[in-house]
Task: structure prediction
Amino acid sequence: MKNELLKAIKTDSLIEIYKDIEDMDTFIVAKVLKVTDNHAIIVKVSATGMYDGFHLIEIEDIYQINTGSKYIRNIEKLYVAKNQKHIEFDEENENLMLSILKFAKKNNFAVSVELFKDGDVQGFIKDISEDTLIISTLTNDGEPDGEAIVKLEDITCISCDHEDAVCLKILYSYIENENISRKQ
Result:
């Protein structure tokens, strides 16, 4: 699948990515930005043609890629009609995991980090080392909830600036503004 993802970068077009064997009707519509042997960084586009964040995915999870479908053409039309854009992904690191983490930290994006293809940790990136990640965690209501230290090798997916993360950041900013107001 790596070669198909590399072709998608060259054509600069949206593709359908199928990863969920449990639900074979589910797929992601995305533009591919970067590819290595193990990972890809994509910009996801929602079913309504809206930008939906940056995502690091594992290539080995992909079992099907569709290109040029009527569905994709309609999503592309919606994306253009709604004047959707994403900021430039400007991190140049051969390790795509470190690349997206640094990108998310630099832009102060809320992140969702999937561990072992199962559980998620959400919040803001506090620190990145060679083998660990520290996240200032947030509850689903945007409230600070301590820190999580995870090994990079246990991370299976990273998402940032997607719809849920943007909502989480907004809720967090309300809480922070309330706390500042109370202190004054």
Remarks:
- The radius of gyration is 17 Å.
